[in-house]
Amino acid sequence: MHLNTVKVHIKRRLSGWRIVSLAGAAVIMLPILFVLLSIFDPPNNNWVQIRQYLVKDYIAQTIQLTLTVAVLTTLLGVTLAWLTAVFDFPGKRFFRWALILPLAIPPYIAAFTYSTMFSYTGVVQTTLRNRFGIVPNQELVTVSSMRGAVLVFTLFLFPYVYLITKSFLEKQSASYIENARLLGRNGLSIFLRITLPLSRPAIAGSVSLVIFEVLSDYGVTSYFGIQTVSTAIFQTWFGMYDADSAMRLAAWLMMIVIGLFLVEMLLRKRRAYSSTTSKSRPLVPRRLTGIRGWAAGLFCMIVWCAAFLFPLMQLIVWAGWTFDSMWNAGLFRLIYQTLIVAVVSTLIIMIFSLIAAASNRTRSTASFVLSKAITAGYSMPGAIIAIGVLVVFLKLDKVWAAFHHQFTLGGTPLVISLTLAMLIAGYVIRFMATGYNAVEVGFEKMGRKYTEASRMLGHGMTATFFKVDLPLIKGAVMSGCLLTFVEICKELPLALILRPFNFETLATKAYRYASDEQIFEAAIPSLLIIGISLISVYVIHYLDRRWEQ
């Protein structure tokens, strides 16, 4: 069979898989569109009050928090990436991977940990008073403020910028930096005139991840009492029981996200970032000796301790205090509930990701649009996804209620809105991108030659997928499974809104303990989340090292 004939035959046989992909993309986009279109609905009395007195403050504080965190994470992440990629100093081999570890601690856990550590009865102020006789100014050490939120987000989100920028510098900038050194440029001049311009795409991409994390946050801002659009959605829904106004606030938050996308597109318009040579070699670090080397190591040590070691040690101490009372059947049920919903959601995501990625292997405009639609949920804050899913499921229950009334059936008409199906749907929409992107990368590395060869030998599409494609991309599939599973276990806003009555996950339970000022009791659920998150960090580090090889 001629090769071109095989390709045409494959495309025809993929049409059924493409239909499934299109249906899945439509399901993912439906809640987002419901939220976006709600901005055109007639407002109620609550919304008139919210728009007149509160929306400006919500948006102003959201923008202030987001921009400040974006700037500080850029400064910290790029500086650490520059040090560990370009220079060699004492402790570099340790810090090169250890600086990724703060990603294992969700910001909402770090928020109540640091807030308690720096409180009047916390370990920091108690040590200063009892051992050194220092009574610090409460306004300076209080973490529960906008300043504290910026600190927490910066310390626990900078690894996004650090990891992506470091990887870019190590793989793409060697010839430019070495040429600049030969021309007599020093370290600071190279950093400002060579490294920063070259790293702009990597920095922009990583900072966008930080911005999305801040916009989707509810735990940190609500615990510190900061009025952002995300916290306003929860207050409107749980405090005023006003779904319409909550949807409008979610629509405003979505408009901010879309605005950020447009700004990023305008900034990159007509600008190309590519190497002038196809040759690429790893960057050879320059040795820092004397005080400069120890200063670099000390700086990395301070950041690592503040962003990982200190909060982890504090949580371990608190867990020891409450272990006897917390380690019981209730905790095991909590672990089971978290794992079962994460496993089911991950399986659905990976199955659909395999179908969508396998049917989307052609480089066409339709494939590009489909991939963007499938992964759109990850760029949307969890509150938006939650409100959209909630509205869709309530409308489905209204349809069922009409059917129920017409045929005079017994029982309650509320069926799917009271089950785990709503929470699982929210997880699937929110984290489809993690599974799909992992599978798509696996297919890109594999290429099409093995699939086409199998089809030329007469194997069907399904047989080819299971016997050829799947074994070749199993590493990517496993990575996607792990990353998706961990993200679901950490997710807080979706679980708070969409979980059924009397159903808790580790994330919601830890947050509720902290909100009720039961900080010590929140330690064990928090450590379990961190332990699961360390899996994600290990996968990221493993993939990074494998890419280097």
UniProtKB/TrEMBL annotation:
Keywords: Cell inner membrane, Cell membrane, Membrane, Transmembrane, Transmembrane helix, Transport
Origin: domain of life: Bacteria
InterPro entries: MetI-like, MetI-like_sf
Annotated source species: Paenibacillus rhizophilus
All copies of domain ABC transmembrane type-1, residue ranges: 59-266, 335-540
Protein name per its UniProtKB record: Iron ABC transporter permease
Family as reported in the entry's similarity comment: Belongs to the binding-protein-dependent transport system permease family.
GO BP field: transmembrane transport
TM ranges: 20-40, 60-87, 94-114, 149-169, 190-212, 249-267, 288-314, 334-357, 369-394, 414-439, 519-543
Gene Ontology, cellular component aspect: plasma membrane
Annotated localization: Cell inner membrane; Cell membrane
UniProt xrefs under Pfam families: BPD_transp_1 (PF00528)
